[in-house]
Design a protein that fits this description.
The complex is a heterodimer of chains A (404) and B (201).
Chain A (H helix, E strand, L loop, with lengths): L3 H4 L12 H4 L10 H20 L3 H34 L6 H11 L2 H19 L11 H32 L3 H28 L12 H26 L9 H32 L2 H10 L3 H21 L2 H5 L1 H23 L12 H24 L10 H5 L5
Helix pairs in contact in A: 3-4, 3-15, 4-5, 4-6, 4-8, 4-9, 4-14, 4-15, 5-7, 5-15, 6-7, 7-8, 8-9, 9-10, 9-14, 10-12, 12-14
Chain B lengths: L12 E8 L2 H13 L5 E4 L7 H4 L7 H27 L12 H27 L23 E6 L7 H10 L4 E6 L9 H4 L4
Antiparallel strand pairs in B: 1-3, 1-4, 2-3
Helix pairs in contact in B: 3-4
Classes of the chains: A mainly alpha (404), B alpha+beta (201).
């Protein structure tokens, strides 16, 4: 390991004393109201969705599809956060210590997001899934068991890593860092398997009989990209609101921007790999998925994804200035989150509306409700603990981090 | 710093070489040289010093632009070559696909883009650093060998518009240099006696 104290020139030295106001959510800070705001959004959004959805048979089917898109949107961000924390520990990353707690607060929403899937399992299965293939695997009982297992594993990982991180704030025990590193490796393995099968179950099986072995990675790539977009937004917003002052710098924002660029490219790589093999082989049982999405306005949506989810943000994010400018990166992040939502919409909805994109009021209400649950859980985690892992052994390294 | 150094006749002064005791002293001396308006100069250290590029007033490298251009050229030649072969030179129907089946061309387009970018990065880096350089006038200074061990140096070259042997040496002394020497641009090989005076580990 390098010794920054020895090599660094004097001007890059950082203040040794950090202000408590930038490490905790201060009393009266507007972000302390996030749980209340989130709860209101959740009750209004989900309540309105249920009220509209149960008015008619057609609306009910729309309700569960919209509910699924909204739930997947917030769930994918939280899964990306879990992935980031696991990779941080397994690679013993130094630069990201000061932003890790924000990611932990995002992944802490996972147990609460499980609640969004309860009504889907209880009432929405008949409207969502029409399986005729693979009855041994795709039957309701086994499906419910698998879903419970996925959420149990994600919640356990999120709670366990969150608890140890918080414990280190109190004790300063360096052994906790070792324990988290050791657990992160089997954790990553579990994460990869559960996310893959979750995507098979909840997205791929919407299209009866269609399969693509890369589909899990496709869902993961989009999720990780959405997380880094939300992460960049959260960090930029925190700094604008006077939090993490002199702790999180442009250098950390720059690195989050680099990871966002990485996953913009990775998503495109996965999307194209899936498309190329199916297009080239041209087998009817594989092409059904794309044939449906070549119909009507779904083709336009696909073209918007090609340019909006990949080509344009890819070239914009290549710029160092764009990644270091808070306004530019925030604008790109909002745009990419919208593209991720369109991607999920494009995956779920063509089954319900085969001829083209049909926007529904339920899409909006369900999304607002799901985001409300997410914001409430995220805000609750922010309030509960320090905004930075206070006594992580690599905190000094992270504080003085600079891009070359 | 980008522009090629003019070749000086042997015996003329190549530049001033100053040695500093610590990275911090070198860092502040670089700020001083920068603020004095010198442009044809460099710092030499055994290891990277964070922030030194700012102290030296270096602009961001132009290498990324070279990489962007060569990568785009690689990608364009990739899709261009495949498109030309498939539509003009040897139009063949393959598995019932159109002649210009762009999805099939993307992997090779991507690979040639990466290849172009890699060539641009390596060759551009060599060009900007004026490498390979087989000999450098500063090698004439015995003290300069320590630049790869424990010495911290600034060299100001004589073709800098602000260079003046007396005043430049004074400036470097004022900025805290332990030793300042004027290095000749002689291209003659080292005298046989030199080898014995060099410290060997």
């Amino acid at each position: 390991m390098s010794d920054p104290g020895h090599h660094s020139a004097p001007s890059s030295a950082r203040p040794a004393v950090l202000r408590a106001a930038s490490l905790w959510l201060p009393a009266g800070h507007p972000w302390r109201r996030l749980p209340a705001i989130g709860l209101v959004l959740a009750v209004v959004g989900l309540g309105a969705s249920l009220a509209i959805g149960f008015m008619s048979e057609a609306a009910r089917s729309q309700l569960w599809h919209s509910w699924l898109v909204g739930s997947l949107f917030v769930l994918s961000i939280a899964l990306g956060a879990l992935f980031f924390v696991l990779v941080h520990h397994s690679t013993q990353a130094g630069w990201s210590v000061v932003v890790r707690r924000i990611a932990e607060d995002i992944m802490a929403t996972l147990p609460f997001l499980a609640l969004l899937f309860v009504p889907l399992l209880a009432f929405g299965m008949g409207d969502l899934f029409h399986w005729s293939h693979a009855k041994e695997y795709l039957n309701t009982k086994f499906f419910v068991i698998r879903t419970v297992v996925y959420f149990a594993i994600w919640s356990a990982l999120a709670i366990w890593f969150g608890r140890l991180s918080r414990l280190q704030d109190d004790t300063g025990d360096h052994q906790l860092t070792r324990r988290m590193r050791k657990t992160s490796l089997p954790g990553l393995l579990l994460f990869a398997l559960t996310v893959t099968f979750f995507a098979f179950d909840w997205l791929m099986s919407l299209n009866d009989g269609w399969y693509s072995t890369i589909f899990g990675v496709y869902f993961f790539a989009g999720s990780a990209m959405a997380f880094f977009a939300f992460f960049a937004l959260a960090v930029i917003a925190a700094r604008r609101n006077g939090l993490l002052a002199e702790v999180v710098t442009t250098e950390h924002q720059h690195d989050i921007g680099k990871l966002l660029l990485t996953f913009v490219a990775f998503w495109a790589y996965m999307a194209f790999s899936q498309f190329l093999l199916i297009w080239y082989a041209n087998l009817p049982e594989e092409t059904s998925f794309f044939a449906q999405r070549y119909t009507g306005s779904w083709l336009t949506a696909g073209a918007v994804l090609l340019f909006g989810h990949f080509l344009v943000p890819f070239f914009l994010l290549l710029s160092r200035a764009a990644k270091r400018n808070p306004k530019a990166l925030a604008a790109l992040s909002v745009w990419l989150l919208a593209m991720h939502l369109l991607d999920l919409y494009w995956l779920v909805m063509p089954k319900l509306h085969p001829v083209g994109l049909v926007p529904s009021l339920l899409d909006a209400t369900a999304l607002i409700g799901c985001c409300g649950v997410f914001l409430a859980a995220f805000g609750g985690a922010l309030k509960r603990q320090a905004l930075v892992p206070l006594r992580d052994p690599r905190l000094p390294e992270s504080l003085t981090f600079e891009n070359m | 710093m980008g522009l090629l150094r003019p070749s000086l006749p042997p015996g003329e002064v190549f530049g001033a070489l100053a040695e500093f005791a610590t990275p911090a002293e070198l860092y502040h001396a670089c700020e001083g040289v920068r603020d004095a308006g010198y442009t044809r100069w460099d710092a030499h250290t055994p290891f990277p010093i964070h922030g030194l590029e700012r102290a030296m007033g270096l602009r961001a490298s132009r290498l990324p632009w070279v990489v962007l251009v060569t990568a785009v050229l690689g990608a364009v030649s990739g899709i261009g070559l495949q498109g030309w072969v498939s539509t003009i030179a040897y139009p063949l129907v393959i598995s019932g696909k159109p002649f210009f089946s762009w999805p099939a061309f993307i992997p090779i387009t991507f690979e040639l883009g990466v290849l172009g970018g890699a060539f641009g990065a390596v060759l551009g880096m060599l060009a900007f650093n004026q490498l390979p350089t087989l000999h450098h006038p500063l090698f004439a200074s015995q003290r300069f060998e320590r630049a790869s061990d424990d010495g911290f140096f600034i060299s100001i070259e004589s073709w800098d518009p602000r260079f003046d042997a007396g005043r430049t040496v004074d400036l470097l002394r004022r900025l805290g240099a332990q030793e300042v020497e004027l290095v000749a641009s002689s291209s003659e090989p080292a005298k046989p006696g030199d080898a014995t005076t060099r410290a060997t580990p």
